[in-house]
Specification:
Elements lengths: L8 E3 L5 E3 L6 E9 L2 E2 L4 E5 L7 E2 L5 E6 L3 E7 L11 E5 L3 E3 L4 E3 L3 E9 L9 E10 L2 E11 L5 E7 L2 E8 L5 E3 L11 E2 L3 E3 L12 E3 L4 E2 L4 E3 L2 E2 L1 E9 L9 E10 L2 E10 L5 E7 L2 E11 L4 E12 L4 E10 L1 E9 L12 E3 L14 E3 L5 E7 L3 E2 L2 E3 L6 E7 L2 E2 H4 L1 E2 L5 E6 L24 E3 L2 H4 L1
Parallel strand pairs: 3-10, 3-11, 12-21, 12-22, 24-30, 31-40
Antiparallel strand pairs: 1-41, 2-10, 3-4, 3-7, 5-6, 5-8, 8-9, 12-15, 13-14, 13-16, 16-19, 16-20, 17-27, 18-23, 24-27, 25-26, 25-28, 28-29, 29-30, 31-34, 32-33, 32-36, 35-39, 37-38, 37-40
Length: 460
């Protein structure tokens, strides 16, 4: 039987593991180094089912966490201004597990420099320039902001400590205000200004951007950006529908994203709104945008309602009228093995709903733990379209099929509120074996490496 498998597999655990049968706690420890020297006073965080306070590495660069709640955890080291960003590590922790020597080395960073000038060739001072890495996340190409710098009086910038990778450089404006709308009194209609995002060398579309390959310790100079003024527009809207919780104090927010191709380049506006009033966003050139409205309970970060609207500005401002928020929904379902109704899953397997074409919103609930019998439920989920990812599956298991009311979720995504989700696992997945060598000491094995297996047909 031919099975279409759409996933990519990460080999997450690449370090020494031993079991301590006498302890009910798990323990995690290691050392952070910067250019092979102990990295003192770097913040290390561990996020997962149980909360942990971030901690500073000691004089030897060491850190240690201890806990008892099982699950999938992510370990991160926060970069400093003069350091590159190390790769995060994801691992499954269970009671009694002792993870030692999970060492993280902060790589030598690269540098990008250049100038920002206007159409006449004059320097543009005080503007923010960002280095955006093109990365694949959850099977989709994304822009990931790594670092940035503000131009000086000569229009020059210098972006340091960049991890190895492919980058595009962009000039981005600050966030725009969302104001109460008064008819006939738009703040920016008919004016001109610089676009919210301009990619090097001078394009507004991502397809026109120059792609730079940056290697450790390398400096790429002469990456200039030229800005041209455009006519600026406004759009107006009013929120209605599920704006407030029936019993709890709640807030409503509006977020505007610039849409470039299949990637979010910038949050252009984000502000609380009054559902009783019309609102306005000004200062936008012609282009395609996304308006996201959400309401939530602040103290519990519990979502209440959500709506989206696609906006196309062309030659004039636009009033899109009333946008109705839909109440949050529950997503329930079952995970089962092919040819069986139920299966026993290890602790820590979870379902995750990656974001598509929007940024994270307050009140988002997109991660749920799957019970040992395969049942799962996510409550108070914003009524939006999502992709599906299952984390922490045992070796050899993969998502073979996923459907919702007859809809193929692996192909078309899932819609919260459109029925229960049925996830079918295959258990005959291939296994890869090998080693990673740093090319030194006669090819000695390199701990901490991460391996990715991707479907080439899906990613080119």
């Amino acid at each position: 039987m031919r099975i279409a498998v759409r996933f990519f597999l990460l080999t997450l655990l690449c370090f020494d593991v031993s079991h301590a049968q006498s302890s009910k706690d798990w323990a995690l420890s290691g050392q952070v180094t910067n250019q092979d020297e102990p990295a003192k006073d770097f913040w290390v965080s561990l996020s997962g089912p149980a909360p942990f306070a971030s901690l500073l590495t000691d004089g030897e660069g060491r850190y240690a966490f201890r806990g008892h709640q099982a699950g999938i955890y992510t370990l991160r080291v926060q970069k400093k201004d003069n350091s590159s960003e190390p790769r995060s590590r994801t691992l499954r922790l269970v009671p009694g597990l002792q993870v030692q020597n999970l060492n993280i080395n902060i790589p030598v960073g690269g540098i990008i420099t250049g100038r920002v000038r206007n159409k006449e060739g004059d320097p543009v001072a005080g503007t923010m320039v960002l280095a955006l890495a093109r990365v694949v996340r959850d099977g989709q190409l994304k822009l990931d902001m790594k670092s940035g710098d503000r131009t000086d009086a000569a229009g020059e910038y210098r972006i340091q400590a960049l991890p190895e990778g492919n980058y595009v450089v962009a000039v981005m404006r600050g966030t725009l205000p969302i104001r109460k709308y008064v008819a006939g009194k738009s703040k920016a209609a008919g004016t001109t200004g610089y676009p919210p995002v301009v990619f090097s060398p001078e394009g507004r579309m991502l397809e026109t951007a120059s792609v730079l390959a940056v290697t450790p310790g390398e400096e790429r100079g002469g990456v200039d950006v030229r800005l041209r003024r455009d006519a600026l527009r406004c759009f107006q809207f009013q929120a209605a529908g599920a704006l407030r919780h029936a019993d709890k104090p709640s807030k409503a927010y509006a977020t505007v994203n610039l849409w470039v191709g299949a990637e979010i380049a910038e949050v252009l506006a984000n502000s609380p709104i009054d559902g009783q009033e019309a609102n306005e966003v000004c200062g936008l050139p012609d282009g395609e945008y996304r308006l996201h409205l959400n309401s939530f309970v602040p103290d519990r970060r519990e979502g209440v309602g959500y709506a989206r609207s696609n906006i196309l500005l062309s030659l004039q401002s636009l009033n899109i009228g009333t946008v109705n928020l839909q109440a949050t929904q529950s997503l329930t379902g079952t995970m089962r093995l092919e040819n069986r109704e139920k299966l026993e899953l290890p602790i820590g397997v979870r379902i995750r709903l990656p974001l598509g074409d929007r940024s994270i919103l307050a009140g988002d609930n997109r991660v749920g733990t799957i019970a040992a019998n395969g049942d799962f439920a996510l409550h108070n989920v914003y009524a939006d379209n999502y992709q599906l990812v299952v984390d922490g599956l045992p070796k050899g298991f993969y998502v073979a099929q996923a459907s919702q009311s007859g809809r193929d979720v692996l192909v078309n995504g899932l819609q919260v509120g459109s029925g229960a989700l049925d996830v079918v696992l295959g258990s005959d997945g291939p296994a890869l074996h090998g080693s990673v060598s740093d090319g030194k000491d006669g090819g000695k094995g390199n701990r901490g490496g991460c391996h990715c297996v991707c479907d080439r047909s899906a990613h080119g």
